[in-house]
Amino acid sequence: MVSIFQRMLFLALEVDRSPALNSAKLSQELFHMLISDIPLRAHRMLLLESLQSMLLRCKLLEHLLDYACPLKISLPMSLSLLLHFLKNCTLAPDPSVNITLASCYLCNSVSEQRGGIGNLVYKPDDMVSKPAICEAVEAFLSRSQADLGQALPLHVEESLTYLQDHLLDVCHVIGMPKEKYDPPDPRRMYTIMSSEEAANGKKSYWAELEISGRVRSLSTALWSLTHLTALHISDNSLSRIPPDIAKLHNLVYLDLSSNKIRTLPAELGNMVSLRELLLNNNQLRVLPFELGKLFQLQTLGLKGNPLAQEIMSLYQEPDGTRRLLNYLLDNLAGAIKRIPTEQPPARSWISLQEPDRTRASALFSVMCYNVLCDKYATRQLYGYCPSWALNWEYRKKSIMQEIMGCNADIISLQEVETEQYYNFFLPELKEQGYDGFFSPKSRARTMSESDRKHVDGCAVFYRTEKFSAVQKHTVEFNQLAMANSEGSEAMLNRVMTKDNIGVAVLLEVRKEMMEASSGKSLHGMEKQLLLVANAHMHWDPEYSDVKLVQTMMFLSEVKNIVDKATRSLKLSSVSGETNAIPLVLCADLNSLPDSGVVEYLSTGGVDCTHKDFKELRYSDSLTKFNCNGKNSTSNGRITHGFKLKSAYENGLMPYTNYTFDFKGVIDYIFYSKPHLNVLGILGPLDPHWLVENNVSGCPHPHIPSDHFSLFGQLELLLPNLPPQVNGLHLPARR
């Protein structure tokens, strides 16, 4: 039956869109069959998962969600509908259970909802905020427990936490909600300062300016009023607008309507703060493609202009302003026959110190790079970047050029999509002499194979002529949170719901590399290990506590790896010594240098009352993490025993993440003392290039990610060789 419906659907879509045969009608019939003939939820799940047509699956899901809600809502499959379901659904168990509730047998449909998330429709008016998501999930949780008379089964609760986390990620990816914009009030009032107020030193402030009176040209003094946020120049006789208007970079409202303007300056596209640009009733025949750079524009007035039909057709479509701006931006490079900015200059090398010549050492290089996963590279989030430059097929070439240009011995990547790791990164880098290890975020374990391949994660690559892998580890923060949540609701409700992960690879340094670097024979030296750890912490600035706890959990697991390796490999180091194995920690911490996360890593500890904990109770749980003997809380501090230092200290890199809304350092390379030194690092991109080319943010046609890579050369100090007798090395005392 299902197969017949699917074949009919494909015919309806491919042959014609007859009202007698479409997805809505087919899904309605399938829904009636499902409700009347398949009462068991498990069987319904099998049916849903068997549907090959995602369109049919989503339509059927709409009916199921609507069927479970006494309070109806008329919406397509969308974020709003999903939240409506969570807030208003009626739950019931399978008929095989001896609890009967109402007539609805749609039980705990979290799994069904998650099955259709990838196909949710986002509409401009479908504004869903983070508080709304949390409120809806809480409502679902409390009401379902009341309806069932018992707690939700563990697997359902886990699915619900994944759903909440995914919705919050979606909310982040599509940039919702947009900053609210209130246009100027046409009935605005003004006040005139009295002579007494002026004499008393009162300062005037006005952010809006109106010019009227059939003005034919504008004074150059106008361009010095850079504080203006609104400029009203409608109903004049202007025939041109000078390029200097772009100096008014704080304008959010510009009204040039009802003039005689024939052309617009390309520099208008640099006024990226604009939310409203009114050009109605002028004599414009063409628009500069640079207008497409106005990615924050919400209102564009073009009526009453003799523009080309192609432009007006786009403009008159639903969401026409956005469609037209996208068209202009995507065609900007083609219009001027090249990418509109020159290639950025090469980043300079910053030497920090010379190698230690007094003892044997080995030199190697490390790269840390968040490559920006394809599913996060959306126009909603990066509206300043052309869609062709966001396309993965375009970006992946530049990403690989960046990686190969650094030619690092160890490469740590974040936001690597599962499919791209196996089909792109690993094959490409294996050809260059690397091997690697990868783990996706925890959500991948509960997904179908087709959905799992799009989950991102962390990867570590190493040059096989210099290193060989001894052990590989994955650290799942939500699993650690669940295991250590006793006594802390915050650990369950805030940390466990985030499925970020870390990876660690224990490497053995090949003796040939050490001998080549030191110029000495190292016969008799025991194996030299190096631990490389890579992690990506939660993104949301409102969850500083989660980032700090995740970092503590990661370091705790790294310490466990060191302890077990020291014992199992019978190293001469004292078992339990935190710094027994040199450590390189690469991470997108999503935390600034003044955060609790960086303080914890770089100083060895953080106060239990640190503001980043948000006064939530974590201390009892955190003492269970074995980092420094027992995770010490003496003097009210939670500490670790690693002696970590950042390769990029003292503001050597002003930002590692560069977008329109945020510019700051959130990526790091830490290394452990006393075994490692940093000899030099790759410096920042020339800031003058960014300013001169009006780069609002990254990604950019020349910069494939919103992150800049970090790259440094490290020196591994080797242990002193045991003394020689008659040319033979005596074993070191253990």
Verbal overview:
Residues 368-707 form the Endonuclease/exonuclease/phosphatase domain. Keywords: Cytoplasm, Exonuclease, Hydrolase, Leucine-rich repeat, Magnesium, Metal-binding, Nuclease, Nucleus, Repeat, RNA-mediated gene silencing, Transcription, Transcription regulation, Translation regulation. Its cofactor is Mg(2+). It catalyses: Exonucleolytic cleavage of poly(A) to 5'-AMP. The chain is built from 23 helices and 24 strands. The chain has 734 residues and is an alpha/beta fold. Helix 2 (23-37) crosses helix 4 (54-67). It is globular and about 90 Å long.
Short summary of the structure?
Belongs to the CCR4/nocturin family. This protein has about 725 residues and is an alpha/beta fold.
Please supply descriptive tags for the structure shown above:
734 residues, alpha/beta, Leucine-rich repeat, LRR (right-handed beta-alpha superhelix), Deoxyribonuclease I, Chain A, seven-stranded mixed β-sheet, 32% helix, disordered N terminus, disordered C terminus, metal ion binding, magnesium, nucleus
Secondary structure tally, helices: 23
Report the CATH topology name of the domain at 361-609 and 640-717: Deoxyribonuclease I, Chain A
Gross geometry: globular
CATH structural architecture of the domain at 361-609 and 640-717: 4-Layer Sandwich
Mind telling me the C-alpha Rg? 30 Å
The number of E-state strands comes to: 24
Helix content, binned percent: 25-40%
* Uncertain residue segments: 1-19, 93-125, 724-734
Strand order of the largest sheet: 6-21-22-7-8-10-9
**N- to C-terminal separation?**
73 Å
